[in-house]
UniProtKB/TrEMBL annotation:
Subcellular location field: Membrane
Gene Ontology process terms (BP): protein transport
Entry keyword annotation includes Ribonucleoprotein: no
Name by which UniProt lists this protein: Dual oxidase maturation factor 1
Location, primary (coarse class): membrane
Entry's transmembrane regions: 29-48, 60-82, 183-206, 213-234, 254-276
Cell inner membrane is among the record's keywords: no
Amino acid sequence: MKGWFDAFRNDGGPTLYSYSNRTPVTGDVSLITIFVLFGTVFVAFLLIFPGIRKERLTTFLTVTLVVFVGMTINVALLGSTWHTSTATIVSSYSAYSRQRMTAEIGGYIGLMHINITYRVLPESADMGDVEYNERFYWRKPHEMTDCFKDALFRGTPFPIVSLAEYFSLHQEGFSWGGKYREAGYYASVMLWTSFASWSMTGLLLVMVPRYGAYGMVFTGLCMLFTNLTYWSLLPCDPLVAHVDGSILIFNFGWNYWLVLVAGIAFLLAGVVITAIDMIFPHSFSTILEVDYDTPYDRHVIIEESFDTRRKDFRRKMGRIEDSFSDQFMSQVSSKLVNGNKEDHRGMVNRGYVSHPSDLQEDSSKGNWSYPFPPTPRRVV
């Protein structure tokens, strides 16, 4: 079994893991997890989409937009590209060193942190593979100071320390760190509000699509207000960092623009659905509704209520017509009967009887009631 259990071991010692597994800012594990999670949900929806026979367009657009907005909110909360800048510098690896190398440095500012990357370009082949990614947090008032001191203690490359010094909270004469921390704090509050509204919007779209459209409008407004808050709280004097003769000018990154686009799309979708529902009530529908295409579906209930109202109306109108016709016919018939009685009424001869035997026959009949009883003829 030699060669099987002694792999990666030297002189019978334990396995040597000589390669670090540090994750660069462009491949953050948390962001990859969010992409995989929402991508799995959307792929599952695409697998069942061919079996949908009704409301295909509205269902596809609604699900796609909801998944996209939810992913955008989570990525923006954990992302590091709200304000970014990159530059190529020629500097020393450590302070007071005469050796110069060409490298690329980048600053990626998130809501509660900044990532600073440092990568030596292939032109400086004698230095080998040098790549750094350092994250400095400012979630607490003194956390940025502690991270900065820890970077100095660990011997972080000099360009990274030089750029991180600009974000130290009100130290060394720099105040940009406090402004970025304030902007990130209030923007994160608005994003968490957007996330709560987005969650409620998903439930409302399943239960009552009309109120789901209202939730889409509110969520879109919260996301747009997030962009407005972050933009308004940025430093009045833009940050221009100088690192070994190179200049880094920070601009809005793709996280900022992604939230802006998603907020506008969600807001417009909510407004359009609300307008359609007002003009054509109860016309917007998706297959995501709880009672869709069942006897308890709101469309079925509405149609049945309309049919019931029509039937009740017809029944009432029929009764009214029948009662009116009955009254009219009774009045007409009564007038006709009275007219016939008056026309055919004649003189009654009470004193005439045809024959005495007729009286016996008449008396022998059943209990027939005659209008006038017969009067016997008087014999003189």
